[in-house]
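R.M. (postdoc): so does anyone remember the format we settled on? I'll just put the structure tokens first.
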């Protein structure tokens, strides 16, 4: 309903929309699926040029030239109330503890290849019925991405409500409004579900998700050999070598100190990202009471996602590791962690460098609903960093980004 903003199903005689037009004299209605406008109760279609802006905001349309210029735009847009905003760097409504969803949406919107695919996405079969779940999540996500990058928004903010409803339906209420969850769990589920929908509708085994995020890691497993007394001695050669695909790498942080300093303040340790990545150098072992493991990367994706295991859960409570990970914003070289290319002739792998696009952070208590999730995003055209927490957006210095309590990092490979 374009007058009061209420939603109704159907427009025929006896429907709620028909009765509403008679009771309160609100006559102009728009179909949310095909953007056709009708006047009730007479039920005739309204065709007028003054409605084009409304239709465009409901479903923005981009030309290939406009998409190609998205990362080059430095001019802010102006909303109807006069406020300025940067397309693509726009606030999302927090609909009761949905900040963990907002940060994942914002981060994925910074992935150029995925963003461009979703902006041009056309599903083979329309999911107009809420009970038609095949392709619903991708359709709703594509609609939301178009609105986030829309330079003609009526407001300097966007509501992700329809996408949240699709998440709730597709996840069988594993992720829902009113209950804060872990964005890392949501990210893993979302990428897998989008991949399944796209391959089902488009055919084939590959998708834009795998093209963007999929890499491979080689894992060597060593069994214990005959020990001396209670000492466990592992064999010199691996019992099993397997290759596993991944869409993001999970990295362990060192345990935080148990004691406070002289002023009775908790000590916040710091560590370099390169120390955490040593897990994949092909030389460092990870031991458990039963087995020993060694990891080496076989292939890396165009967009590298790194997840720090900050939260430890047990039967009673959740603990958060406050360790600060110092990471580079530019030129992260991942070549030393890749298996040696046999064609390199022993000269080592050529540099494989990545630049940071976004980082998700957590602040506050680890208990659900007690902390907040926010993120830092890079505006490429301005070469500036912005902090986004739901509707609040502010520019920050790059130094603030690299020393934040980051939780998930999103890097883009530099193709030289």
């Amino acid at each position: 309903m374009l007058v009061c903003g209420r939603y109704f199903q159907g427009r025929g005689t006896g429907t709620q929309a028909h009765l509403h037009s008679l009771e309160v004299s609100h006559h102009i209605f728009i179909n949310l699926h095909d953007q056709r406008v009708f006047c009730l109760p007479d039920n005739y279609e309204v065709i007028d040029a003054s409605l084009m802006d409304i239709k465009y905001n409901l479903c923005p349309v981009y030309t290939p030239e406009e998409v190609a210029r998205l990362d080059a735009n430095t001019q802010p847009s102006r909303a109807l109330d006069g406020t300025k905003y940067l397309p693509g760097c726009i606030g999302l409504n927090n609909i009761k503890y949905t900040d963990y969803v907002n940060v994942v949406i914002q981060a994925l919107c910074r992935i150029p290849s995925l963003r461009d695919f979703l902006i041009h996405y056309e599903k083979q079969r329309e999911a107009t019925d809420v009970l038609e779940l095949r392709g619903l999540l991708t359709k709703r996500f594509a609609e939301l991405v178009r609105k986030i990058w829309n330079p003609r928004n009526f407001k300097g903010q966007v509501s992700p409500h329809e996408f949240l409803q699709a998440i709730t339906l597709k996840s069988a209420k594993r992720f829902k409004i009113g209950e804060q969850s872990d964005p890392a769990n949501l990210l893993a589920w979302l990428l897998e579900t989008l991949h399944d929908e796209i391959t089902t509708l488009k055919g084939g085994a590959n998708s834009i998700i795998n093209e963007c995020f999929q890499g491979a890691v080689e894992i060597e497993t060593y069994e214990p050999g005959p020990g001396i007394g209670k000492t466990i001695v592992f064999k010199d050669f691996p019992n099993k070598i397997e290759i596993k695909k991944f869409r993001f790498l999970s990295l362990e942080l060192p345990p935080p100190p148990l004691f406070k300093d002289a002023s009775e303040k908790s000590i916040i340790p710091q560590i370099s990202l390169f120390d955490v990545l040593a897990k994949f150098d092909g030389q460092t072992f990870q031991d458990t009471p039963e087995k020993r493991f060694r990891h080496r990367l076989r292939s890396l994706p165009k967009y590298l996602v790194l997840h720090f295991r900050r939260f430890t859960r047990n039967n009673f409570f959740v603990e958060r590791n406050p360790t600060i990970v110092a990471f580079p914003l530019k030129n992260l070289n991942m070549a030393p962690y890749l298996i040696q290319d046999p064609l390199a002739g022993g000269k080592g792998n050529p540099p494989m460098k990545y630049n940071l696009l976004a980082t998700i952070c957590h602040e506050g208590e680890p208990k659900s609903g007690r902390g907040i999730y926010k993120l830092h995003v890079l505006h490429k055209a301005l070469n500036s960093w912005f902090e986004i927490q739901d509707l609040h957006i502010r520019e920050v210095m790059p130094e603030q980004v690299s020393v934040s309590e980051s939780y998930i990092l999103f890097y883009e490979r530099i193709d030289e």
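R.M.: ...and that's the designed sequence above, right after the tokens. Also worth knowing: Residues 73 and 370 are 37 Å apart (CA to CA). The chain has eleven helices and 23 strands.
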